[in-house]
């Protein structure tokens, strides 16, 4: 029987999951998704193959579980950061910065590639995690319009344009020392694009 890590079976399972996710995160950074294997992740997480398959029977289930975990953490971080800014324009700037930082940190295939990598049900599970992010953007925009800080526009038109702009890896695929400037430029672009009223 495998050795139990932690004080209970549930704690053991959670610690194993976190070890696996850490190993997967490292390998995504170093190699990219296509080069990853369950055996390679298990080896880095110091798990036997049988133990790995008990938790994640295939690469797709591992990816889905990892994205769900990362997305939940990111949504909590996004909500806290946006809530800390009182003005809707500041909230939009925070939103843009965090979205681009997240894009720079993660090394998953883009949405279109994920759709072909995963089965339809798995892709829908992952895509569903974008819903609270999109809803927060909608709230920022509608609050900004209600406060007179943004001109009246249809949020259903603005949201896909903003999210498409923020999904481009070309923005953040720059040398590390240029990343802050690239993100700052993207923030200025998005604020101008939605017609931020500066009061000047």
UniProtKB/TrEMBL annotation:
Residues 37-56 bind DNA. The keyword DNA-binding applies. Pfam families: TetR_C_24, TetR_N. SUPFAM superfamilies: Homeodomain-like, Tetracyclin repressor-like, C-terminal domain. It comes from the Bacteria. Residues 14-74 form the HTH tetR-type domain. PANTHER family: HTH-TYPE TRANSCRIPTIONAL REGULATOR BETI, HTH-TYPE TRANSCRIPTIONAL REGULATOR RUTR. This is TetR family transcriptional regulator.
